[in-house]
Write a structure and sequence with these properties.
About 35% of the residues lie in helices and about 20% in strands. The chain is of the alpha+beta class. The chain has a 6-stranded antiparallel sheet with strand order 5-6-7-8-10-9, sandwiched between helices. α7 runs antiparallel to α11.
């Protein structure tokens, strides 16, 4: 079971208005009004729910949640709402009545149309069915798995790889792209189990190939492939790396010495829009660098280069990672190795001496306890050889 209970507490703001009303009959009503639905709205919802959980405890067992203008920013946005419903019903044993008004989707959020959230809102799923489906779906264009910490490892990872390839076989997407997607997703799952020892959620949807490029003579049709991989943990993306580098918990090694030197070089760049946490997030994606203490002979597996290759083979893309309130956007032009196998995440491609580009750094209104990846890949419909 995903341990997402702390998600509420860590987003609580007691100096802000909570959108909570107590109704006759003993239930709680939470109403979030907005013009769209993104990070700030999730934070308000979480803060209000923590107020209910900590104030009323067992005195109220039913919560009504109304979200106006539910136009999710991306796939991760509505997946997080699913995680909230899951935690309320599973961890806290609340009955949840959900109302989503003015829902609208884009190519990045088309998966909402067949999501557990939409079916739960429509009452097509009971609470028990929602809990069961939360961990496993493979239906049409929707793939979901929760891989437990106990199951992560070589054999299970190989099984997930095979299931992903089978899932993608029904779509006219070139085999090499499918291979790349499967490798990136399984690598992220493996990292989750290896580094945090927590459960990992994978959710993928593929749109119908009905989209065409705007302002183009290309009449081809395109799929939208939307992927979320996340885990809830008290360890953030750069937690172990920060401890290791700051306290020199590594044997003498030229590559780790270079990171230590880079850390001191970057200190002069630290500001409200580039903080120490951002630096260690960037370090986490460097080749042959690991957050494991006293280890210098192994490290990064080239995940950044895999993501780079995946994006380059897409006709359009939007990819980022979020951890805590900070994150990184992945742009192919900033993901190239230099001659010394460092990735700068900047125009100069200089990790050791130059800060990452401003548009690379993500600042979130919602605190995410763990690490969450969101990928949107726009890929041309092509011949799938089915092999």
């Amino acid at each position: 079971m995903l341990n997402c209970g702390d998600f509420f507490k860590l987003n609580y703001e007691d100096n802000k208005k909570n959108f909570v009303m107590i109704k006759k009959g003993g239930y709680v009503d939470i109403h979030i009004k907005s013009e769209s639905f993104e990070g700030k709205n999730i934070q308000r919802l979480l803060s209000s729910l923590h107020f209910v959980i900590s104030t009323y405890k067992k005195a109220c067992r039913q919560i009504h949640i109304t979200l106006d203008k539910f136009v999710p920013r991306d796939k991760l946005t509505y997946i997080l709402v699913e995680c909230i419903i899951y935690a309320l019903t599973t961890v806290y044993n609340y009955e949840v009545i959900l109302s989503l008004k003015g829902s609208r989707t884009t190519i990045q959020t088309k998966g909402y149309s067949t999501s557990l959230l939409r079916e739960y809102r429509r009452k097509n799923l009971s609470t028990d069915d929602f809990k069961k489906s939360f961990t496993h779906v493979q239906e049409g264009a929707h793939f979901r798995r929760v891989i437990t910490a106990e199951d992560s490892g070589g054999e299970k990872i190989g099984m997930i790889m095979g299931e992903l390839k089978t899932f993608f076989k029904v779509f006219d997407i070139q085999k090499e792209y499918v291979e790349q997607i499967a490798v990136v997703v399984t690598e992220l799952v493996d990292n989750c189990g290896d580094h945090t020892n927590t459960d990992c959620l994978v959710d993928i949807d593929v749109t119908d190939p009905i989209y065409q490029l705007k302002n183009s003579n290309d009449n081809s049709y395109y799929y939208g492939i939307n992927i979320v991989v996340l885990n809830f943990s008290d360890k953030l993306l750069g937690t172990d790396m920060a401890d290791k580098i700051e306290n020199r918990l590594f044997a003498e090694n030229a590559r780790y010495d270079a990171v230590y030197e880079a850390y001191h070089n970057h200190m002069k760049f630290f500001s409200p829009d580039y903080v120490e946490e951002d630096f260690f997030n960037i370090v986490s994606f460097q080749d042959k660098i690991s957050g494991r203490k006293n280890e210098t002979n192994s490290g990064g597996t080239g995940l950044t280069q895999l993501i780079n290759s995946l994006e380059k083979n897409a006709d359009n893309h939007s990819c980022y990672v979020l951890s805590g309130k900070r994150g990184i956007r992945f742009y192919p032009q900033y993901l190239e190795y230099n001659s010394d196998k460092w990735i700068g995440f900047n125009k100069s491609n200089d990790f050791l001496h130059d800060r990452p580009s401003k548009n690379v750094i993500v600042e979130s209104d919602t605190y995410f306890p763990g690490t969450a990846y969101n990928f949107t890949l726009i890929m041309k419909k092509g011949e799938n050889d089915g092999k």
